[in-house]
From TrEMBL:
GO terms for molecular function: nucleic acid binding; zinc ion binding. This is Zinc finger, CCHC-type, Gag-polypeptide of LTR copia-type. Signal peptide: none annotated. Residues 215-251 are annotated as: Disordered. Residues 237-251 have a biased composition (Low complexity). InterPro entries: Znf_CCHC_sf (IPR036875). The lineage of its organism: Eukaryota, Viridiplantae, Streptophyta, Embryophyta, Tracheophyta. PANTHER family: GAG-POLYPEPTIDE OF LTR COPIA-TYPE-RELATED, PTHR47481. It holds the Pfam family Retrotran_gag_2. Residues 219-231 have a biased composition (Polar residues).
Length: 336
C-alpha cells in the first residue's frame, strides 16, 4: 500500500514523452505497454484485474473492503499514466471514463479501427506516397508510419510490397538506383533498402550539390548539345547545312576548278590539256578565280578532310622549291 502510493507522484511527474495522435498509435501503444508494466499495473489495462467487492462480511458484521481501496489507487495510477500521454485530440475520446481499462479500450477503438474502409484508405495512401522534394529520411519516416498503422489494425504490409511501393515513391530521380535494386537476385530487407537509398542521396549531393535527378542533368546536356549543333556549318552559294547531329549523309558533289562543272575534280578534268596549252594567265586573275571557289573563314569546320589537307600542303611546299612554276600547274598540283 505504502509502496504504491509513494510511487504515484513519480509516475505523474514523469509522463510519457510520446503523445498519442492519429498517426502514431502503434508506437504509443508499445511504449505505454512497457511503461505500465514497469509500474506493475499491466493487469489494469489488459482486463486481467477486476475490482474486488466493495464490502466484506465477517459474521453478521459488514465492513468496507480494504482491498478495494488498494485496487482503486493502483487503477488510478494506471489511468494517470495513460492520460498524461494524450494530446488534446486523443483526450477528447476518453471524457467521462474512470478506469484504466475503459480508457485503454476507448483509445484502441478510436485509433485502431480495423474496418475495411480504413485498411483500403491506408493502403491507397501508401501506394500514392511519393518522396517529392523531401529527403529520403523524411520519406521513409512517413512510409513507415503508414505501415505501422496497418500493422496495428491487423493488416501488416508484406515485405515485397514495401520494397516495391518504396522504390516507386522515390520517383524518377532514383531511376538508376531503383533499377539496380530490382535487378538484384536477392531482395534486400526494407531497413537495408532505406539505408542504401539514404547513401545514394548523399552520393548525388556530393556530385551535384543537391539530390537532383540524374535524368534531368543528362537532358539538360542534350539540350545544350543540340543547341550548339544547329546551324553549325554554313557553305557558299547561299546554302546552309545543319550539323552532324541532323544530316550526316549530306555531301557536295565534286567540282572542277578548271571547267567549273560538277562531277569531277581538276586533276581528272577531260579538258586539262586544253587549259595547259592556253596563253599564260596572270597570277592575279588565277588567284581571283581560285578565291571565288573557296570559302574563307577563320574557324576550322568539322568537315575538313585532314588527310587531304596534309597532302595538299606537302605538294605546295614541294612545288615552291621547283620555281619557276606555271599557275595552271600550281592549281593542278594542289588537287592531286
Amino acid at each position: 500500500m505504502t509502496t504504491d502510493n509513494s510511487s504515484l507522484p513519480t509516475a505523474v511527474h514523469h509522463p510519457s514523452p510520446i503523445k498519442l495522435s492519429s498517426a502514431n498509435y502503434l508506437v504509443w501503444r508499445n511504449h505505454m505497454h512497457l511503461l505500465v508494466a514497469f509500474h506493475n499495473l499491466l493487469s489494469h489495462i489488459d482486463g486481467s484485474s477486476v475490482p474486488p467487492p466493495a464490502t466484506i462480511t465477517d459474521g453478521d458484521k459488514i465492513s468496507p473492503n480494504p482491498d478495494l481501496a488498494t485496487w482503486t489507487t493502483s487503477d488510478q495510477k494506471a489511468a494517470l499514466l495513460l492520460l498524461s500521454s494524450l494530446t488534446e485530440e486523443a483526450a477528447s475520446e476518453v471524457l467521462g471514463l474512470t478506469t484504466a481499462r475503459q480508457i485503454w479500450l476507448a483509445l484502441e477503438n478510436a485509433y485502431s479501427n480495423a474496418s475495411v474502409e480504413r485498411v483500403q484508405s491506408l493502403r491507397d495512401s501508401l501506394r500514392q506516397l511519393s518522396k517529392g522534394t523531401s529527403s529520403v529520411t523524411d520519406f521513409s519516416r512517413r512510409f513507415r508510419n503508414i505501415c505501422e498503422q496497418l500493422a496495428a489494425i491487423g493488416h501488416p504490409v508484406a515485405e515485397i510490397d514495401k520494397l516495391h511501393w518504396f522504390l516507386c515513391g522515390l520517383g524518377p530521380s532514383y531511376e538508376v538506383f531503383s533499377t539496380a535494386i530490382r535487378a538484384a537476385k536477392a531482395a534486400p530487407l526494407f531497413r537495408d533498402l532505406v539505408a542504401q537509398a539514404e547513401s545514394h542521396e548523399l552520393f548525388l549531393q556530393s556530385l551535384h550539390g543537391t539530390a537532383s535527378p540524374p535524368a534531368a542533368f543528362h537532358a539538360q546536356n542534350n539540350r545544350e548539345s543540340s543547341t550548339q549543333t544547329r546551324g553549325r556549318a554554313s557553305f557558299p552559294r547561299g546554302n546552309s547545312v545543319r550539323g552532324r547531329g541532323r544530316n550526316s549523309s549530306t555531301r557536295w558533289p565534286p567540282h572542277c576548278q578548271l571547267c567549273r562543272t560538277n562531277g569531277h575534280y581538276a586533276s581528272a578534268c577531260p579538258s586539262l590539256h586544253t587549259f595547259a596549252s592556253q596563253a599564260n594567265l596572270s597570277d592575279e586573275s588565277i588567284a581571283k578565280a581560285f578565291h571565288a571557289q573557296c570559302h574563307v573563314t577563320n574557324d576550322t569546320p568539322d568537315w575538313v578532310n585532314t588527310k587531304s589537307f596534309l597532302v595538299m600542303e606537302r605538294n605546295c611546299r614541294l612545288l615552291i622549291r621547283l620555281r619557276p612554276l606555271s599557275p595552271i600547274l600550281f592549281l593542278y598540283a594542289m588537287f592531286l
